[in-house]
Amino acid sequence: MDLGISGKTALVTGASAGIGRAIAKALAAEGVRLAVVARRRALLDSLAGEIGAPLVIIEQDLMAEDAAENVALQALAGLGCVDILVNNAGGSRKFKLDTDEAQWNEAMTLNFTRQRQLTHRLLEQMMAKKWGRIVNLTGKSEPEGINGAFCAKAAMHSWAKGLSREVGKHGITVNCIPPGRIVSEQILRNYSPEYRQWQSEHEIPVGEYGQPDDIANLVCFLASPRARYITGAVIPVDGGLRRYQF
Fold it and tell me: CA 8 to CA 226: how far, in whole Å?
């Protein structure tokens, strides 16, 4: 299927590994010109080698105060415009009852504030062209306990829904993808092989953990003209793991 995005431009955050890296490679395979953001420059350089096409490489810690502005300026300078924004960067933050304000602020900044700031920095040029795609990688709505990332991702869902209602008339869609158990550095670090096997057999209807490409495939579709009538949506990619009805 021709998705019709060849020649478009995209900015992907958290692109050095896992889901973000798979998204960058999938978009590049569709002919999209890319700017990629992460802290680990060597991994971004190797990504460029795998893709075999020039990339705008932006080495940036998104916790820096001026990170969103820096990323936006470098992406626009390197690509000329940004048609597709994939807000992928983030990370789990399990908290206790006595977690301090600095840790809460870090979790909210990394998992919500920077995505919001970067998106709003790029909206004007999308509106001027009457076309844009914003895809946010978020999180589940079933927290087992207090997790700063889950709280931030809930804010992302609310913000993205509201934003979608404001920018739809400009040809811009805004959607969220909460991944399930997708094989990544974080998953391999946090869950033992024994637990992954047990969960695959007992909790995931399709019987296995997902792969980063399972997310990347949906991102490419949502980034395309074929998804023009999908906006304000939260679309899980989780093999049926989540039990909520909607």
Answer: 14
Q: Is 116 helix (H, G, I), strand (E, B) or coil?
A: helix
Residue range 182-203, pLDDT digits in tens: 998 888 988 899 999 999 999 9
Cα 191 off chain centre by: 22
Residues 6+ apart with CB under 8 A from 90: 14, 110, 111, 115, 137, 139, 149, 152, 153
Q: Return the bridge partners of 86, or none.
A: 12, 135
Helix (H, G, I), strand (E, B), or coil: what is residue 229? coil
| pLDDT tens readout for residues 64-106 | 999 999 999 999 999 999 999 999 988 777 778 888 989 988 8
Which own/partner contact pairs does 67-70 have at CB distance under 8 Å and 24+ positions apart?
A: 67/114, 68/114, 68/117, 68/118, 68/121, 69/117, 69/121
**122 sits in which H/E element:** helix 114-129
What tokens appear for 160 in the block? Answer: 């993205």
pTM (2 d.p.): 0.93
Residue at 145: amino acid letter? G
Q: What is the Cα–Cα distance from 44 to 38, expressed in whole angstroms?
A: 7
Distance, in Å, from the CA atom of 196 to the CA atom of 183, rounded to the nearest integer, reads: 10
